[in-house]
Amino acid sequence: MLADQNRFDDALQMLDKSIQVCYRLKGQGPCIKGILAQSLDTKAGLLQLQGKFEDATEILYKVVGIQKESLGEMHPATAEAYETLANAYVLQEMLQDGIAASAEALKIRRRTIGDDHPDTKRRMEAHRSLLNRLLENRG
């Protein structure tokens, strides 16, 4: 709501308070880790809206680690975290890093829901698009 009003600094301050509480309670169970991951993901989104892509990417990398630790390597939320990280890399024209994160997300999707699932097909197409973009930039 604060971000909708362009009050990014206020929104970031509130998120930081939430994140600090989550870090203090992190050992209390997976629910806290999920809230932490969501709060960090939201903060990264706000930072991207402000053009602070490097800061956002660093946070999204942490989100991937939290999801892997709390939910496991092959969880759909971990795949989603990798996809968000891939998009952050692409926004910075860091295509190789974006492709690597996208490949991880795709690997999880393929193993958990299969090649024929619409989400997997969507990720395959997005990944193919990234590969083509990298080839075009090199050509």
From TrEMBL:
InterPro entries: TPR-like_helical_dom_sf. It comes from the Eukaryota. SUPFAM superfamilies: TPR-like. The keyword Metal-binding does not apply. Keywords: Repeat, TPR repeat. The keyword NADP does not apply. It holds the Pfam family TPR_12. Signal peptide: none annotated. PANTHER family: AAA+ ATPASE DOMAIN-CONTAINING PROTEIN, TETRATRICOPEPTIDE REPEAT PROTEIN (AFU_ORTHOLOGUE AFUA_6G03870). This is Kinesin light chain. It comes from Cylindrotheca closterium. The lineage of its organism: Eukaryota, Sar, Stramenopiles, Ochrophyta, Bacillariophyta.
